[in-house]
Amino acid sequence: MPAAHGYAAGMTGAATPAYRRLSVEERRGQLLDAAQGLFAHQAPEDVSLDDVAEAAGVSRPLVYRYFPGGKQQLYEAALRSSADALNHCFTEPPEGPPTERLGRVLDRYLAFVDEHDAGFSALLRGGSVAETSRTSAIVDEVRRAAAEQILVHLGVERPGPRLNMLVRTWIAAVEAASLIWLDEEKRPPAAELREWLVDHLVALLAASTASDEETARVVGRLLAQETPEGPVARLARRVIPVVGQAAHLL
Amino acid sequence: MPAAHGYAAGMTGAATPAYRRLSVEERRGQLLDAAQGLFAHQAPEDVSLDDVAEAAGVSRPLVYRYFPGGKQQLYEAALRSSADALNHCFTEPPEGPPTERLGRVLDRYLAFVDEHDAGFSALLRGGSVAETSRTSAIVDEVRRAAAEQILVHLGVERPGPRLNMLVRTWIAAVEAASLIWLDEEKRPPAAELREWLVDHLVALLAASTASDEETARVVGRLLAQETPEGPVARLARRVIPVVGQAAHLL
């Protein structure tokens, strides 16, 4: 790398010595960080290669040298790196009541959605010119990782068809709720949305117990680990009066 | 229209008189039907303009005369016509228990998914080259129409944020379940999937009653219209033992 390419490093912050020569990896990381920051808050359509060069404080040809595929390559690399960050959010030690673990995962997930608002919307709403079979594959991989993590916490290794559909359907519901949440200017507060999404999964599990033995076993194990202060107990206390209202049907 | 363009009409079936001259509207409809049949069972990538011409029994230039935008224009017109058919499925007279009305709507919806299997998957999975902001807008319009119809049957004109999120989230879950259903070679049978999806909405409504007054009112009205043989009663009977299992939490 010719030293001249380090000229703009000083723009990234007062603490960075001017003209410091970045290694290939450092430079690549710097460009990717700049791209990711832009793609997080804007639709890919609205981000130009000049914007990326400007945000990184480098010239447009330098961006092309590292990402010869231009914006599309940068977009896919930024998405790849977001996918890794999301997969990292999903990791939670298998300790304590499962619904509380799920709540912590959802808190991290909603913080991610908050930090990647416009980019998250553009990606999941479809119709973006930057969307390809490769970007769809990355999104699907994240969904699969999320489903696998949930199944780990439910103590299931190879789910039957009903439980598999239940978990994947709930993940789709979480995505939809996240998009609506962004549309509604992040109302209700993230903690309230998280609580509702946990209730949603518990309600789905409860509704599927009688028609699916595997789900019944999962719910049995889940109930044994929950506490009177936890989400399942709170939900049960709230649903009992509703079931009471349905007494005329029983 | 020069008469020569009617030459291939005889190929569409023995009952059609050969060389019958189709009106502009008839011809357009014929081409669109042919395109729709292909797009229903294949990803747009896998449908060529030659395929459409062949299915309609006409020449490729004739297809271009009616659809100068070529395959993309045909795809969007086919999608528009599918969206209208779907919106038509959603219409259900406001009579009888709401969950039974919902079951009938879902039966029609699942029949539609069954008849448009590969096209439905390709459209909703994203990453298709035929996907544009226009096709996304058509899909969104269908989702909006579905949400409006559900709210009509729940007796709500302008839903508050929680009920709005609940209905839209459930619609996303139905879409996800439909895609998984197609992946799983249409297992379980459509009637079983429909029953599970109705349970899913009822469970969601029940889980939201305590945190949202509007949902509580909706559930109250819903329960008053249900019968002991209906989906809500069936679900309530199945959930009661689960709540019993949670007695140690209460």
Key terms:
homodimer; mainly alpha; Tetracycline Repressor, domain 2; 11 helices
Give the low-pLDDT segments of chain A: 1-14
Number of strands of chain A: 0
* Number of domains as seen in the coordinates of chain A: 2
CATH homologous superfamily of the largest domain in chain A - what is it? Tetracycline Repressor, domain 2
Main beta-sheet strand count, sense and barrel state of chain A: none
N- and C-termini, Cα separation of chain A: 77 Å
Order of helices and strands of chain A: HHHHHHHHHHH
Keywords (chains A, B): DNA-binding, Transcription, Transcription regulation
GO molecular function (chains A, B): DNA-binding transcription factor activity; transcription cis-regulatory region binding
DNA-binding region (chains A, B): 48-67
Protein name (chains A, B): Transcriptional regulator, TetR family
Short description:
The structure is a homodimer of 250-residue chains. Chain A has helices at 24-41, 49-56, 60-66, 70-90, 98-115, 117-125, 133-153, 161-183, 190-208, 213-225, 231-245.
Topology (elements, then pairings):
Two copies of one chain form a homodimer.
Chain A: H1 24-41, H2 49-56, H3 60-66, H4 70-90, H5 98-115, H6 117-125, H7 133-153, H8 161-183, H9 190-208, H10 213-225, H11 231-245
Helix pairs in contact in A: 1-2, 1-4, 1-6, 4-7, 5-9, 7-8, 8-9
